[in-house]
Each structure stands twice: as structure tokens, then as C-alpha cells.
Amino acid sequence: MSVSTEKFQVIGPVDPIVAVLGGAITLPCSLSPAMNAENMELRWFRSIFSEVVFIYQNQQEQKEKQMPQYKGRTSLVRDFLTQGVAAVLIDRIQASDDGLYICFFKNGDFYGEAPLEVKVAGVGSDPQVHIEGPQEDGIHVVCTASGWFPKPQVQWRDPSREKFLAFSEVHAQDAEGLFSVEASLVVRDSSVRNVTCSIFNPILVQEKVKAIFIPEPFFPQASFPWMQVFVVSLTMLMLLSLGAGYFLQKEHSAKVQEWKVWKTLQQAKEEEEKEWKLAMKEADEFQRDLVSLGVCSLSAWRKAQLYADWRKEHFQIWSVTLDPDSAHPYLALSQENMRVTMKDNCEDLSDDRCSVLGAKGIMSGRCYWEIEISNRYLSKWAVGVCREDVDRNRKFIERPRKGFWAVGYTLGSGSVKPPQIS
């Protein structure tokens, strides 16, 4: 492991240095007998002298001749240079760092060198196992994994941990030098229900396994000649029947499809009308309840007016900022997204459900907010809360069954009605 000179010999590590992908390693060398190496030329290179990994000369690092793949990844550990011990640190280990290195010390006309072996290793992805389907007289099972270095070892095992000896294996390397593997196995014994694929890194002594269950119906069953003839005959008969009925079926399918579309539209229309009538009924019942509770409510309201801060004791004020992305095209928002108005050019308003959501939802707590409505007795409006998943793209009714809790106002015919609660 060393080369002698007249003045000293360079000694390197006897065993290979294991480096983990993405980590860091040091390549140490020392002089025997021990002497100060601060003023020596130190060089670490690969198989030939010009493949420079690191150079220390004139008491400083020389970067001009360094190989591009090592630039910015190497540094000298000089803590023990005065004792004849030096090491180069390599970080962000790559697959290409694997192999032989030479440690070279020169003092005047005398020099010495020693070899070092680096074994790079990395554990990649977990194996993925899937069933391809029946093949020959068994089931074809495939195991794949990637990102391993060096080339991993693959083993298939049955539930008793016995190894399958006969299987195919294909390896490939990517641009970074990492290995991917695909191992194929044909399971012919129908009594074997579980197989395990093992991917093993021999340097790090690390293993990743994946098992798969093979249902019994996947295994091909024994068949007789008469059965084969029957299957072929039945297949031909089915093909002839399908060919004869193809054109009739095509025309019939088109008519059936049109009828289904019409039926779906009719059902949707009936459902909307039914829901609308139910909503009107609920609104009338609620309105009657409001009238019956009017006396009590009036007394409570007068007490509340005497105590202006009752909201602040029981609720937290909620500042509402409107979300422009949720606004109906007929609505216009103010610059600060705090006010909403109907656009002036909306002469033909076919959709009477123009809505806009707040930018931030209420997740918990008891909140209140205050609104100011201009022209409130000459318009139809509602304000409140709704569930996040409500459908606002179709005609909707503001009531709890649909996910809406709102207070609103509807202009009556020739008279003014109080606000409606849905």
C-alpha cells in the first residue's frame, strides 16, 4: 500500500473507504517517518497524474488544474500537517467518485505516493411489484426499483424464504450513473400465494423488500381439446352476431341516447320546480313565525338599542373582503373589494342569482358583520353565509337544505315586504 523513497514513504488506508451518495468523505495520507508537510506539494489524483482531484502547493490550494467535477467540492484538512498527516475532504458524493485515488507527497526532489480505494454506495427506491398476467404455465410477476449504486442484487423468495433461482434481470444506468433494475419471475406453483422481491446493496448491507399476493384464479387452469374447440366456436358465433346487429344497434343507440338526455332535462326541471315550491312554503311558514314573535322581538330590540355594545360581548366582528374571482359577471366590485354594485349595462338580466363570495371563510367562533345597502327597498337582495361546496353555477335557492343561511329582501307587487330569512 505504499511506495518507498530515500527520505520518506507515503502511507494510505489499507481498507476501502465507503462513501454514501450525497454525503462526504476524507481521503487521508500520512508520512513515515513523521515530518512537517506544510511546505510540501500534496496532490490527490485519479488513475493518471493529470486527473487532479486536489493540489496543495506553496502553502495554498491550486485550483487551475483541478478536474471540473471536483470544483467547489474539495478542501484540505490541514490540522496535522506539521505532523505529516493530511487529508482531502470531498462532499456531495456522486456515483462518478467511485474508484481508485492516488495520494502524492513531494519534498524537493523526493516524492512518494500511495493508492486509496473509494467505494460509493447508495440505497434507492423501494421495490415495486406487480402482476403482468398469465405466461406459459404460470403467472408473470415483475419487480422494479431505481436510484441504486452500485448495481444492486435481486432475489425472489417464497413464503418459506426459499429463493427462486430462475428469473430474468435487466439493469440500466441513468445520466448520474445510478442503477435501475427490472426482475421478472414466472410463478408456476399454484400453491404459492405470496412472493417477495428483495433489492440488496452489498456495500452498505442494506435491503428493501416488497411482497405481493397472487390470487388462485390468476393461475391458468388445465384445459382439454374439446374445451378449446368449444371456446373457438363460441367466439366465432359471437363475432358473427355482433357484426349482424351492429348497424341496427347503432341507430337504436342514438335514439335511446336522445331520449335519455330529454328525460334527464325533464327530471331536472321538475326537481327545481318542486324545490322552489318547497322553499316558498318554508318561507311563508317562517314569515308567519316572525309575525307571531314580533311583539317579543320588538321588546328585545329596544333593550338592545339601549346597550350598543352587546355584539362585542358575545360576537367578534368579521371584516369581509369580497373575492373578485367568485363574482358574477354582472357584478362590479370596488377597488378595495369591500363594495358590490350591479353593472349599468345589464339590461337583459336572465339570471336573477348574481352572487359574490367573501375572500376568507369563517371556520369557527361566533361572528357578526355590518352592511350598508343603498336603494334597499327597490331591489332584491340577500346576505349571509353558505357552505364552501354549494353549486352557484345553476339556479339556486337560498335555504339551509341547499347550504345557504341568509337574510334577504324581496320586493312585493305594489307593497313593501319586510326582510325574508331563508
TrEMBL record:
GO biological process: regulation of cytokine production; T cell receptor signaling pathway
InterPro entries attached to this UniProt entry: B30.2/SPRY, B30.2/SPRY_sf, BTN3A2-like_Ig-C, Butyrophylin_SPRY, ConA-like_dom_sf, Ig-like_dom, Ig-like_dom_sf, Ig-like_fold
Residues annotated as domain Ig-like: 22-121, 127-210
Sequence similarity: Belongs to the immunoglobulin superfamily. BTN/MOG family.
Gene3D superfamilies attached to this UniProt entry: 2.60.120.920, Immunoglobulins (2.60.40.10)
Keywords, sorted A to Z: Immunoglobulin domain, Membrane, Signal, Transmembrane, Transmembrane helix
SUPFAM superfamilies: Concanavalin A-like lectins/glucanases, Immunoglobulin
Domain of life: Eukaryota
Transmembrane region(s): 226-248
Topology class, membrane: Single-pass type I membrane protein
Pfam families per UniProt: C2-set_3 (PF22705), PRY (PF13765), SPRY (PF00622), V-set (PF07686)
Record's protein name: Butyrophilin-like protein 1-like
Gene Ontology cellular component list: external side of plasma membrane
Domain B30.2/SPRY: 300-422
Compartments where located: Membrane
Gene Ontology molecular-function annotations: signaling receptor binding
